[in-house]
Amino acid sequence: MPAVEDRPYQPIEAYALLSNCEGCALVARDGAIDWACLERFDADPSFSRLLDRQRGGHFTIRPEGRFETARQYLSRSNVLETTFTTETGFVTLHDFMVGAEGGADRPSLMRLVTGISGRVAMIATYRPLAGFAESFAPLKVDGGRVTAPDCPSLVTSVNLSLDGDRAVARFSVEALQEQSFALYLADSPDALPDTPPDARALMEETRLAWALWTQDAAYVGPLAGELMRSALVLKGLTYEPTGAIVAAATTSLPEEIGGIRNWDYRFCWIRDACLSFYVLKKFGMSREAEAFFGFVSALCEREEGQLKPLYSIAGEADLSERKIAHFEGWRGSAPVQHGNEAAEQHQADAYGQVLDLLYLYDRLGGTLSDDMRRHGARLADISAAHWHEPDAGLWEPRKPEERYLHAAIMNWVALDRAIRLFGERPDWCRERDRIVAFVNGEAVHRDGYYPQYLGTDAVDAALLIAPMVGFPVDEAVFAHTVDVVIERLGHGHLVYRYRNDDGLPGHEGTFLLCAFWLVDALLWLGREEDARTRFEALRAMRNDVGLYAEEAAEDGSFLGNFPQAFSHLGFIHSALMLDLYEHGGRAAVQGTYADRSLRETDDRRAPCIAGGAERPE
Questions:
Q1: Structure pTM?
Q2: Where in this chain does the record put each GH15-like domain (predicted)?
């Protein structure tokens, strides 16, 4: 085995997610925690070797000799089990984050090493870094305890020794022997216990908490286990104190190796969160509803309806970008970013996403507060007044604004759902009809497809969602649009978002959500065989523990931030679309998200909001 400091960058697909719904960590196949933001998702990291293999911190536990690994999550949980196979025996490593509800004296993250057979020599290397600091803080080692300023503290059942800027423990385990490692957010020795807590008991408590959450699942079909894994990812990316859902657990994993398309995704995009919330509801997970509605309601109240496309997970709007110049980035892909200035863009589709969510909430039996009804009507007023104006588009290009068709369609959604929720108002009805006339008339390309924006030849995979939101597309134009997407944006079962200039140098990988959108569009058109073939190919792309990144290279290797909420919600949605189609044909996949949510099959019951009654379709 190479020395730890000589270890090359690991593929993105080598990682597994740990979460306690406040912070997160990524664990590689070789037992290394190379990324962790323990206090909250968008905090400065404690381990960051993911983005610089020399300067970044890490916490590695692995056998000293040669080994092979196999991994899985414990059933219906985010507790990770890694099995190391060595020449001298077998050992397991269980990794999990601990919920904060028990108080500040609980560890944030636990690692449990268990001997299975034989005798295996192990090495643990602890090298934290305070955020993106330019040098490692001095470690203080006292037996099985390690502290450092502004870093998490380690308490373990083995003795450690100082080796330069790292603490190292060498130990062996035989069958049934265990050694545990606990990370605490406190960096003061006085606040730490002398020994780690009972790791087995904490692991069972954590496993049970995740398993109890999964009991509400509405789908029991053949893909139940795989869809539950994606639902657990979405839950794991949810910030429990506010209900906000982050787009991904990482920052700056590149869309092109060596390129500059590296963004910070540890924030809540209104669009992503609404779509994630929708698929969780369709899958039967309803307990996150009130917290997320409170989050959106507070934003609407504060912004007076002028929603930004993204916010921090606690609602802050200032996400100014700064570059971490001394970090080289994953596989040399600089810059490493902290913050995301896309928060300053105007993305008009957000109004439709929020009103569609309100409509779904209402249809599933939820009761909208007077404040939310007032906010919803205000959003519809904004759409009616401004839908025809240019905006930045949902893909956040760094170029002048255009009249994007996707934005027009989502403004139609805002007006349509407002009319259904709050009643007809002359300006809402008039502008809703004008949008349909625009999209199906003036905006149609001379060759008979829907272009990305008015006056361009470019095509955009975002338009694949038009019939999914119930927009009255011209079916012939939409069918041709699907064919043009496959021809110009497709690569086998993979799909690019777009291929035209977006104001940035270089290029990006294929976008997994768009590939799932193509599955949905093909089903809507009745092209079931093609849809199923593509879905099965996408299903096979998940890594060994069932996770997706944002993008994929044409060879299938992962690109972009990881794990990505968009990709997992796309997988769940397409699977449930296929289930609907199998039981009811093309008619079953028509209509709005709310319409489809209320259609039951042999494998899925219709969800309802807790405390509300289901409503007939």
A1: 0.95
A2: 227-574
